[in-house]
Amino acid sequence: MSGFSCCSVLTAILAIALAIFVARKLYPRRAIPTENWEGRYTFTYDHLVRPSSLEEIVSTVKEVNERGGELKVVGAGHSWSDIASPRDVMMTLSSYTGIVKVNRKTKEITAKGGTLVSEINEELEKHGLGLSVIPSISSGTIAGTIATATHSTGINYGNIPSYVVELEIVSGTGIVYRANRHSNSEIFNASLVSLGMLGIITEITIQCESAYNLHEVVTLEKAEDVVDRVFDVIKSADHVKLWFEINSGMVQVYRMNRTQESCRNQVIHWVETIRVWILEISAFFMSRFPRVNTVLSPLMVASGRFLPIRDQINYPPYVFNIPFDLPRHPESEYSVPIEQTKDKLIEFMKIAKHYMTKMAFNLAIEIRFVKADHIWMSSAQGRDSAFFTCLTYNPVDEMFMKFIEEVRQLLDGRPHWGKLMLTDTEKHLKPKYPNWDDFLRVRNQMDPKRIFRNEYLERVFPSIYASTAKEL
Ligand SMILES: Cc1cc2nc3c(=O)[nH]c(=O)nc-3n(C[C@H](O)[C@H](O)[C@H](O)COP(=O)(O)OP(=O)(O)OC[C@H]3O[C@@H](n4cnc5c(N)ncnc54)[C@H](O)[C@@H]3O)c2cc1C
Fold it and tell me: pLDDT tens-digit profile of 429-448?
């Protein structure tokens, strides 16, 4: 090949690559999830639907309803539970995304259901606005995020759905409802935390606030002291979260306050990522070769005491979001009324310490706090709440499952709908939600043929879904 034709081929390849790059930037297409984030549940289905218009969503729902089929909308698939697992039709709103409008005066943003929280953060920044709270990762869809009552931390701040002021939802019969506190108010309340049982949420308007930065200070404190003064600690900053290091008897206390000061000392994300991977690799060896524990455990305890105190001012997504790529792991979470925090923590620590000896060091415990709301199926309904999260990077799954079952019984709380909840059913959940029957009444009206069912719903709500096949 002559030099000239070689050059032409190279130029053509470069031009095609550039065109693909520009097209992807202009018309981004997200990958469709094939399994949930942890990889525990694979998404299997007979039909995949990727609508790009409201009409397509409505006609798909009508078709499934008429033939008595099933339809599950999958968001980003970030739930640890099988709440999003489809069987018949899997719908993804990954082509039904984007910001519909931003109202700077009322500080509200309206986005389509498939929009990622990160996309909302980016848009708000351009307008000098921000979400009041952001979860630990922003790569979930806004509809999936509210469906499971996703929350952050801060005793004077509610969970994400509590900031929603209006939404649009397509019912199981294909009717499009616009709902807010004044119009279709029952549908609104039930749809704010819907577990995907009511319909397809196509548009959401969220109350935001003026842009702010967060001043984050992380200190290492003695677990005993923190538990003893926990009610003061909860109020010691706008947003407080606690990471218990069971082995060392220490707690990392994260305190985050709103500020208008400029960013400084930002945490370097890739350094944090490397630190986490080192922890994970040592956890892997410790759980496979327990003898290594005798050497590594004291080292871990010692290193915990020398953890640097972190002090940064940064944009909220960089502080609320975990600043590293989390290794895949299982996780469960239960909320209890805030006044039970201390007593439950004392008992909880005993169980954690007991399992710690069996599970090596990598049992992580995170405690966060959320303001009460009025949403029927919210884990913070009617009470300020403390959320107890348990996770492990330990490959010994069976042991972790025993642990979280024991924790579930101890806490006797409300589960995070999107985290591992293997034994919870309506029998013991119903007494914990005063408006349980109201929610089911609206559900019945919205989806009479129960097209949004899946295995998770059949397990958790057997009285509604287990008999579906027989009745229809
Ligand atoms: C690393 C990591 C960190 C996390 N951090 C937090 C945290 O800080 N706080 C917290 O509370 N949770 C957290 N979670 C949990 C997670 O963010 C939520 O469970 C959330 O549901 C994920 O959104 P998704 O888009 O992935 O929804 P999916 O998991 O895909 O779906 C969840 C539910 O929403 C329904 N759904 C999705 N889209 C729609 C729609 N358009 N209309 C109606 N229903 C719909 C689905 O059918 C399903 O029932 C975290 C998860 C991970 C993996």
Answer: 999 999 999 999 999 999 99
C-beta separation of 367 from 387 below 8 A = yes
DSSP assignments along 89-122, one per residue: EEEE-TTS--EEEEETTTTEEEEETT-BHHHHHH
pTM beyond 0.70: the answer is yes
Q: Is the CB of 148 under 6 A from ligand 1?
A: yes
> Token pair for residue 260?
């208008």
Question: How remote is the C-alpha of 173 from its chain's centroid?
Answer: 28
Nearest CA to ligand 1 atom 37: 144
Closest CA to 252 of 303, 205, 298: 303
Domain carrying residue 267: 213-419
Atom 15, ligand 1: residue with shortest CA distance: 79
Based on the structure, what is the number of domains in the chain? 2
pLDDT at 140: 97
183 and 251: one domain?
no
- Cα angle, residue 266 at apex, residues 260 and 268 outer, rounded to 5°: 160
> pLDDT of 268-303, one tens digit each?
667 667 766 776 676 667 666 666 656 666 666 555
161 lines ligand 1 (CB under 6 A): no
Domain annotation covers residue 443:
yes
Q: Give the pair of three-digit tokens for residue 8.
A: 């032409």
CATH number of the domain that 230 lies in? 3.40.462.10
